[in-house]
Each structure stands twice: as structure tokens, then as C-alpha cells.
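Write out this protein's structure.
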Amino acid sequence: MTIVRSLLLFALAAVAEIGGAWLVWQGVREQRGLLWIGAGVVALGAYGFVAAFQPDPNFGRVLAAYGGVFIAGSLLWGVLADGFRPDRWDLIGAGVCLAGVALIMYAPRG
């Protein structure tokens, strides 16, 4: 159950951070206005709290592993929100990153 909780928190963090950054991007680069930017700032702030709920007590480990989730999530966000088509190298790279997440967070220790 701890791994499931951790994975759900990583997914929530990715939605908040990537979504927040995308909203700011839309507000600034696509000139959608201050409401988009403000919503992005709120989402980015929410992301900052999510890591605190990870079951692992090591900040460095949690944030290092989250980096892999962020990479894969960013590619997925691009596909869903912007019609981005990742190539095989994008997909291989994301897979390597997710393997790193699994090693960093869930490898047996002892």
C-alpha cells in the first residue's frame, strides 16, 4: 500500500507542477492573461506541498525520484495538451527515467 500511495503522490505532484507551468506558459507566451498565470502559480504552490506527504522521510531521495516522474509526465502532458508526438528516443529516455524512479524509491534497502 505504501508504494501505491507514493505513486499516487508522484502523479499528483506531476499534475500540479507540470499543469502549473503549462498554465503560466499559456498565460505569458500565448497571451491568455493573468488568470491563467495566477492559476499556474497556485498549482505550482500546491506542488510544493505534495512531496511532504511522501512516505519516505528523505527529501533528497523523494525529489531525485520525482525528477524521473516529471520527465515522463512532461512528455505525456505534451501529448495530451499540445499534440506533441514523442519520438522513440523520447520514449526510451522516459523509460530510463522511470526505471531510475523505481530504483531510487522502491529498491529493497537494509
